[in-house]
Amino acid sequence: MIKNGFSLIEYCIALTIFCFLSLITLFNWSLLQSAMARIEINQLYSACEFVQQYAMAQSTAQSLTFDQSSGSYSYLGRTHYLPYGISFGAPQGAKGPPATQTQPIQSAITFSKQQILYSENGVISAGSVYIKDSLGSCGYALSSPVAQYSHLRKYYYKDNSWIYVQ
Q1: Using one digit for the tens of pLDDT, what is the confidence trace for 76-133?
Q2: Which of 26, 126, 144, 160 is most deeply packed, by most CB within 10 A?
Q3: Residues 48, 111: Cα–Cα separation, whole Å
Q4: Could you tell me the pTM of the whole model?
Q5: With b meaning 16 or more CB within 10 Å and e meaning fewer, what string describes 68-82?
Q6: Distance of CA 143 to the CA centre of its chain
Q7: Would you say 135 and 26 are in contact if contact means Cβ atoms under 8 Å apart?
Q8: What is the mean pLDDT of the chain?
Q9: Whether 54 contacts 121, CB under 8 Å
Q10: Measured distance CA(143)–CA(42) in Å, rounded
């Protein structure tokens, strides 16, 4: 007698393989999102450092402008768009600014007029910008304190607090 179709064991094996592959894919997506957020904050940091150096070399004020609605920032005639799954924003329940963590974060970009301003002597306007992944599991901040000579600080959000990473 010839049987057509699959046995129950064959179905169970196929279902187990499918579930295992789905689990691996979901786990890797979370890791990919976290890595992409880290890459984006590093690219933003590099762009900020570049604009600061350019302002000092040219002895002219410069700016880096954020467009939260399109998920992009522009500087010196260049525009960079955040990749799919990464956006401006802070993880749920995060407090800021990252150095003091006193108040719930209300805005993804706290720089005045959504711009980082660079003076000809290298001073950067004060504020913070927050980047997160779409899963809400990973967040980064780039912050500039009020100071005579400005520098940027990078933070990573872990266990309900901001950790200085540079």
Answers
A1: 999 999 999 899 999 888 888 888 888 999 999 999 999 999 999 989 999 999 999 8
A2: 144
A3: 13
A4: 0.81
A5: beebebbbeeeeeeb
A6: 12
A7: no
A8: 88
A9: no
A10: 13
At which residue do the structure tokens 């005639």 appear?
77
**Amino acid letter at 120?**
E
Q: Place 151 in a pLDDT band, splitting at 50, 70 and 90.
A: confident
Contact 138, 33 (CB under 8 A): yes
The predicted pLDDT at position 51 comes to 95
Report the C-alpha gap between 75 and 59 in whole angstroms.
16
- The string of pLDDT tens digits covering residues 58-86 is 999 999 999 999 999 999 999 999 999 89
Residue 22: count other Cβ atoms within 10 Å of its Cβ.
10
Look up residue 133 and give its amino acid.
Answer: D
- Name all domains of the chain by residue range, CATH numbers in brackets: 8-164 (3.55.40.10)
The structure tokens listed for 106 are 């209300």
3-state secondary structure the chain: CCCCCCCHHHHHHHHHHHHHHHHHHHHHHHHHHHHHHHHHHHHHHHHHHHHHHHHHHHCCCEEEEEECCCCEEEECCEEEECCCCEEECCCCCCEECCCCCCEECCCCECCHHHEEEECCCCCECCEEEEEEECCCCCEEEEEECCCCCCCCEEEEEECCEEEECC
- Strands 139-144 and 161-164: what pairing? unpaired
pLDDT of residue 149: 65
